[in-house]
Design a protein that fits this description.
Elements: E1 2-10, E2 13-18, E3 21-27, E4 47-52, E5 59-64, E6 70-74, E7 82-87, E8 91-96, H1 105-117, E9 121-126, H2 134-150, E10 153-156, H3 165-172, E11 176-180, H4 187-194, E12 220-224, E13 227-231, H5 253-256, H6 276-282, H7 288-298
Parallel strand pairs: 3-5, 8-9, 8-11, 9-10, 11-13
Antiparallel strand pairs: 1-2, 1-4, 2-3, 4-5, 6-7, 12-13
This protein binds guanosine-5'-triphosphate, magnesium ion and zinc ion (ZN).
The site of magnesium ion (MG) has 4 residues, from helix 4.
């Protein structure tokens, strides 16, 4: 059996890199993943075992190798299905913009929780710093302060004006990373800036809605020097799955750090007395909006995954 890595998945067809060449593979029959039900049993980043179909250059996938990690989200549409964004990654970039389009803190926090829950390091990259007015610059500064204090790496870039793109180059050297975010924040543009030969399709955001047009429709891994970067379709909301309420604060690092000081060891930091987390919020040691977003996720009912209900 040959071993390759999936770089693109469309329906049950997969582009698999094998000996530096793309092999078109299919998956025949049902392929059940044990732990959870997903819309996509095989995702970009997966290492698969395949055999060539007799006398053809097509491959039949027979096996999926154990994954180092999985970044997934629950779909925000009615189906509520779990979708694997990518697997086997070294870290995730959340590309965010203060305006055009607006990335809301609720979205950022949900993304970070998903990364924490799946043991994936997250880096927050703020793009389009060339267009911000004074108020937006202040907002950016305050977001950066909040997330850096918690321990997340943050970067400010402008793809358009080529600011700090070299820092991204350094960051991704010899790594496989995934880049996610709302539609129109500049994910594909950033990848084009890193590797101009790729010529990925990009398009201007809608002037009226100030939102992206969902230009990228399939997740795909691209080679950048010795590293790999996975471009993904823009998403509107980030549904979380498999996270127990009692465990949620473990995925807020600033809460995780102090939760042992709560009176009750099973404190959920909602209604309990002598709660160290609530005290820290009152003292300004934990950001209020982060705590508010914690509560939103905590009290989340299944039909509330959409970002627009939170802002
Ligand atoms: N002013 C400015 N515009 C930018 C910057 N980066 C990207 N853009 C523009 O933002 C628009 C959207 O960029 P895309 O790269 O298509 O965005 P995307 O995140 O890939 O969007 P989807 O594929 O829909 O998820 C394009 O018109 C880009 O030219 C930037 O740093 N500054
Ligand atoms: Mg794109
Ligand atoms: Zn508590």
């Amino acid at each position: 059996m040959n071993k390759g890595q999936v770089i693109k998945a469309t329906g049950n067809r997969y582009n698999v890199i094998f000996n530096d060449k793309v092999v078109h593979c299919v998956l025949k029959g049902k392929f059940k993943t044990k732990e959870f039900k997903t819309t996509n049993p095989i995702a970009v980043g997966d290492f698969v075992g395949f055999d060539f179909e007799k006398d053809t250059s097509y491959g039949l996938i027979k096996k999926i190798y154990e994954r180092k990690n999985v970044l997934m989200r629950k779909s925000t549409n009615l189906s509520r299905q779990i979708h694997i964004i990518a697997t086997n990654i070294d870290f995730a970039i959340l590309l965010a913009t203060i305006s055009k389009p607006t990335t809301y803190p609720m979205f950022i926090d949900r993304f970070l929780v998903a990364c924490e829950a799946n043991n994936i390091e997250a880096v927050i990259v703020f793009n389009k710093i060339d267009i911000y007015n004074d108020e937006e610059k202040e907002t950016l500064k305050s977001y950066k302060k909040v997330y850096e204090e918690i321990g997340y790496k943050c970067l400010e870039i402008s793809v358009k004006e080529n600011i700090n793109i070299d820092k991204i180059h350094k960051l991704i050297e010899n790594k496989t990373i995934v880049i996610s975010g709302n539609s129109g924040v500049g994910k594909s543009s950033l990848i084009n800036a890193l590797e101009p030969g790729l010529k990925l399709k990009t398009s201007e955001i809608s002037e009226y809605h100030e939102q992206g047009k969902h230009t990228t429709t399939f997740t795909e891994m691209h080679k950048i020097g010795k590293g790999n970067i996975i471009d993904t379709p823009g998403i509107r909301g980030f549904g979380l799955n498999n996270i127990k309420k009692e465990e949620l604060s473990l995925f807020f690092p600033e809460m995780r750090k102090i939760k042992d000081n709560c009176k009750f060891n099973n404190c959920t930091h909602t209604h309990e007395p002598q709660c160290a987390v609530k005290l820290a919020v009152e003292n300004g040691k934990i950001n209020q909006l982060r705590y508010k977003n914690y509560l939103s996720i905590f009290y989340d009912e299944d039909d509330k995954h959409r970002l627009d209900k939170y802002v």
